[in-house]
Amino acid sequence: MKKTIVYAFVLLMFSLAMLGACAAQKAETKSIAYDNPTYHFTLSLPSSWEGNYDIVESENKVSFASKANKQAGGELFSIGIWTKEKWATEGEELAAVIHLAKIGEDGTNVYTFATPTDVQYVPDDEQKKAEYAKMASDLDGIKATFALQKK
Q1: Do the beta carbons of residue 80 and residue 65 sit within 8 Å?
Q2: Residues 6 or more apart from 36 whose CB is under 8 A from it?
Q3: Taking the model in full, what pTM does it have?
Q4: 74 CB neighbour count, 10 Å cutoff
Q5: What is the C-alpha separation between 151 and 141, in angstroms, rounded?
Q6: Is 24 left (phi over 0), alpha (psi -120 to 50) or beta?
Q7: 138 three-class SS
Q8: Residue pair 77/113 in contact by the 8 Å Cβ criterion
Q9: Among 12, 19, 35, 118, which residue has the fewest nearby CB atoms (within 10 Å)?
Q10: What is residue 75's three-state secondary structure?
Q11: Which residues pair with 81 in a beta bridge?
């Protein structure tokens, strides 16, 4: 009887620990869904970015920037949309020398993920610099969430 109670207690504690871990993981994985109907792609941004970024859409490019570092540019990354022909003649060579990676393609376009090649934060402000660095540390995870939508 004592063994049964001990086993039941251990099982209960293990179950509670697992539930707690699942709840903590769920809280950490909350994200901001970004849907671009113009270029037909989606991304997930970390919830910690809430209210801290701007999006600028221009012809064939969607840029994400740190609001706090706007005076220094603030760009964190951009999604570029290339025609397949332009990518074949210019993009592949450019990707070899700058922070540019092909992340997807559809019937007519190639999609790229690019990070800036110059400083985009306020270097004299440690708080703004740290905020930019924290956001920049999330970029690989964001890049991995890129998905094309059906047109």
Answers
A1: no
A2: 42, 43, 57, 62, 79
A3: 0.79
A4: 23
A5: 25
A6: alpha
A7: coil
A8: yes
A9: 118
A10: strand
A11: 111
